[in-house]
Amino acid sequence: MYDKESIPYRQVAAKTGQDGPGSPSGGETRATRRCTGGLRRASGPAAVVLACLLFFCSEGAGHARDLVLFITNENWPPYQINDSALKGKGVIVDMLGEIAPSLGLTLKVRVLPERRGWDMLEHGEVDIFPTAREWTENPDRYLWTAPLMLNEDILLFRAGSTLRYVSPASLEGLSVAAMEDFVYPALEPSFREGKIIRIDCGSPYNMLEMLDRSRVDAALVNRSETLWLFRNYPELHPERFRMDETPFDSAWYRFLLPRGRGWEQYIDRFNDRITTMKRDGTLNAILDRYR
Predict the structure, then answer these.
(1) Is 266 helix (H, G, I), strand (E, B) or coil?
(2) CATH architecture for residues 152-249
(3) pTM (whole model) above 0.90
(4) Cis (ω within 30 of 0) for the bond into 8?
(5) I want to staple 80 with a disulfide (CB 3.0 to 4.6 A). Which of 43, 88, 90, 137 is the partner?
(6) What are the pLDDT digits (tens) for 45-95?
(7) What segment(s) does the record annotate as region Disordered (predicted)?
(8) 270 contacts 67 by C-beta, under 8 angstroms
(9) What average pLDDT does this structure show over 213-224?
């Protein structure tokens, strides 16, 4: 039996339809996170005045411009960690902490409820958010950095299982543990047609327990999150499980910034720094801290 209270896990957003303007709507939460927000930008003369004010306030005074990162107040290790020991830490914060100073920016981190964070992004109170283009509705409304790290969703089996994932057909007739309210685009048709039996769980802890007790044949997990949990919580008995090599879905994490707020001049420099971090091993060193 696992000690549920000692293991951090993501809080799952309910299908309330009350998420923020940029957050998933209609219950489309984290396996594929669709951001539906759009920024209400000024146009015409007002846009020119606003751009000038932003420029002179941030650059003209000779001070480093603040870069305010918004991460949600859920716990999703290793991407963002909000337990008592590492609140506001994780791969995302560490990566941006390396990038910002090289661009003459002062990084500030805000840990916020998702709805409030997207509202603040819309109104210019925060500047940057980590996500994937594939999860974002109307992605061209935003500026995007180069890819940072690959997010992979995979199958977790019991250690002795001979099951392998090749395509959704590999899972037909099987039961799989899934996160409640998550959307898994690659598998949704098979769920709807009843070809794969979906068993919803409230946390990764619940999914592991269901799999360990043979109540499901497999669990749908995030590769990086599961590796982090197994490394940091040996009481989960990682030796009892086997991660499949083939992801059933994947997307590249990037940083998203709003258009029309002066960040256009930084994008090429962001990307140059990301390229350098990949080349000199800085990016891998950050990832290794959480593997």
Answers:
(1) helix
(2) 3-Layer(aba) Sandwich (3.40)
(3) no
(4) no
(5) 90
(6) 444 444 444 444 444 444 679 999 998 887 778 888 876 555 567 899 999
(7) 12-32
(8) no
(9) 96
